[in-house]
Fold this protein.
Amino acid sequence: MENQDYEKKVMSIVSDDGSIEEVEVILAFEFKDTNKEYVIYTKNEKDEHDNITVYVSNVDRSSGEAKLLGVDNEEEWNRVKDVLRELSKSE
């Protein structure tokens, strides 16, 4: 049975070369203690095991415009992985 209420959340990403790509947002969240915001998204690509590839970015709004940055802090990455594990359990 298909869920009629489900609506895909799509965002556009502008790359360094100016090209625009639309991706599907899986989850956006913030760690309240650090005030850091993250987004988990997919381009609906599949790996060699037929799993959908997901991407995680830190959202930087300091310039007034949202920029997606990598997660380069190990402690931060471990917390994000915990969110991903919880997300995979709920599906």
Notes: The chain is about 20% helix and 45% strand. The longest helix spans residues 74-89. Residues 25-89 form one domain. The chain has a mean pLDDT of 88.
